Structures are given as structure tokens and as C-alpha cells.
Sequence to fold (255 residues):
Amino acid sequence: MTNFILETRGLTKRYGGVHALEDANFTLAPGEHVAVVGDNGAGKSTFVRQITGVEQRTAGEIFFDGQEISHAGPLEAREAGIETVFQTLALADDLDVPSNLFLGREIFKFRLGPFSWLDRKAMRDRTLEALKTTAVKIPNVDNPIRNMSGGQRQCVAIARTAAFASKLVIMDEPTAALGVQETAQVENIIRGLKERGVPLILVSHNLRQVFDLVDRIVVFRRGRIVASLRRDETDGNDIVSYITGVKGNAETAYA
Fold:
């Protein structure tokens, strides 16, 4: 059996007559970092939503860690070992940083039927440890998320994903709204995941970032995968040619 942490076969998603994703065959090896690139509406985020259970696929198969999967939702995907940073961040504005990091996986001092007591100190300590490991700087972790800047919110979401990464991390445009310093911080987190051997799918428009961080680049165009290229065997002009349709227009192309 081929050793892939993730494989999709014929993955398809249609919204009525709109073919948002068509026959996507994708593989990800253990420890591999792959970028997913393409124009707006190319099918990148649709692809991520199928893998993470946000939406249910129209057709096709998904294999994760050697097993065929059909996640009912993001929580089930996360429990299986898929950690995701969505464009919407999925943070609770009224909660502080520890409560957001441990949302859905809280630490309890005790649980007795309907009665339970959160171990807030343990969650806070582990949050500070996670932020230190990922080099994310939050001046006051007890502040509600709503009082933080967009960059800080993004970094909290990414720190949460990196801290609990087990089998696969997916980041959907993680630096799109960030400044130079915060972008560098996120890129260092991604490099840290690489050092730990955690596989990653990075959805990004930033080709400089892509060439700096990943092993392979997969190009989507009009809902189809049109190229899968080793980073060291291609360049920015080549990738842009696939994105715009100058190359790979007639059929799926693979390096």
C-alpha cells in the first residue's frame, strides 16, 4: 500500500449546476509540506472544506492515515488528527486565549454528570507554553479575543493549530491579512512544523511564501488540479502559467 497520510480520489463537489471541484486526485506523504495555489474560485477552499468535513462531497473518496473517511464535521476531523486554520479563524470573540485554544477540548478538574469544574490554571499554563513554542506574542492572554488586533487573532488561531497538531495541519490563507512581522512569525511556525515532521497543506496566493516553505506545489484551475510540481523543479513563471491557463488547459498535468 502506498504510504500517504492523505489521499483523495475523484473528489468532486457540485452546487447545483456549478462544478466547484471536479475529480481531484491528491496525495500527501508523511512530513510533506504542499502548497495549494490558484486564482479566486479555482476550488482551493472547496477542496479544504471537503477534507475537513465542513461540507460533504458530491463524489469521490478520501483516505486519511490509511483509512477511508467521511467526517460529519470539523470536530470529527479534528478528533481524527486534522487541525485546520480556516479563513474565518473560528474563534469565540467573548472568550480569552486559553478558552479559545482549548475550545472543545477543555481540561476539567472533575466531571460528575451535569456538574463539572474547569481546570483554568492548567489551560492557562499550557496556553503560555504553546505560545512560547510557536513564538506567538500576546501581551495579555486573559483578554477577550474581540479586543485583539486582526494579526493577534490570526496568530492565536495558528498557535492553537500548531500546539495541537497531531497528524495533519491545513492552513487556508494564514497570512492574507497580516503585516510583515506577523507573517514572518507564522512562517516560522510552519518551519517548526516541518522540523517536527508534521505534514502541512498550505493554501496561499503568496508565491514567495510558497517557494520558501513547501516541498511541492499543486495548482487548481476552474475546480480541477492542473499541475503537481516539485518546488525545486519549477519557478514562479511556470506556476503562473498553470494558474492562468497558459499551461495545462486541455487536461490535468503532472510533473
